[in-house]
């Protein structure tokens, strides 16, 4: 069984990694899903720490895990699953405890721990289900622990970096253009998330074209590929500003 997830959700390599978990059944499958979501957040299996020392190259980490049996990264004892992971050189423990047909997932570091109930009936192969489940799990479990660790080791709370990228994209779609410009100046990551979000710029263009007839709008949609550039051209035309042409002599 293969699960294909959209680009703004899990990366293709994590989609493949998640597909490998679905080969398993029962509680092992549930723990495997939680393991994938945790690793995607940047936690490194302790057995790979000698070969991988970056929390930023999650795609590379997924490829390394894909080359090994997935269940080699955790231990199972009487249906209780445990795995040791590292974040910023700090040891963390991922634990799955049976609760009927479900699994109580706990990610802990030092005296901080977060729990999540992973249910069998919520873990089918539909794209939207796994996308939503990924957001919920990371928002409740893996990112809060990651934030706590980075706050202690780096000395600064990671702010927007502390929430899933999927949620940042949702927030971006709710902002006004003036707020987007402010966000783009925050850091390189926020700039890239805004600039490369073609659907966001298409939405802004459509808002500018509210007075245009549906026929004209449909014609535009078939001809535009770079919605961001078209948005700025449209804003410039509607404001009456002329396009500046630089002539090099």
How would you explain this protein's 3D organization?
- The chain has about 250 residues and is an alpha+beta fold.
- The chain has two domains: about 150 residues, Protein Transport Mog1p, Chain A, CATH 3.40.1000; about 80 residues, Monooxygenase (Up-down Bundle).
- About 50% of the residues lie in helices and about 15% in strands.
- Strands 1, 2, 3, 4, 5 and 6 form a six-stranded antiparallel sheet that branches.
- Strand 4 and strand 5 form a beta hairpin.
- It is elongated.
- The termini are far apart.
In short:
Residues 157-204 form the F-box domain. This protein has 249 residues and is an alpha+beta fold.
List keywords for this structure.
Monooxygenase, 10 helices, disordered N terminus, 249 residues, 2 domains, 6 strands, elongated, 48% helix, Protein Transport Mog1p, Chain A, alpha+beta
Radius of gyration: 22 Å
Which parts are unreliable, with pLDDT below 50 for 5 consecutive residues or more? 1-10, 244-249
Shape by Cα distribution: elongated
CATH architecture of the largest domain: 3-Layer(aba) Sandwich
- In whole angstroms, the N-to-C terminal distance is 61 Å
* SSE string: HHEHEEEEEHHHHHHH
How many domains comprise the coordinates? 2
What class would the helix/strand composition place it in?
A: alpha+beta
Under CATH at level 1, the class of the largest domain stands as Alpha Beta
- Compute the average pLDDT: 77
- The CATH topology of the largest domain comes to Protein Transport Mog1p, Chain A
Helix-residue proportion: 40-55%
Q: Specify the number of helices.
A: 10
Q: How would a textbook summarize the main sheet?
A: 6 strands, antiparallel
Q: Care to count the β-strands?
A: 6
Portion in beta strands? 15-25%
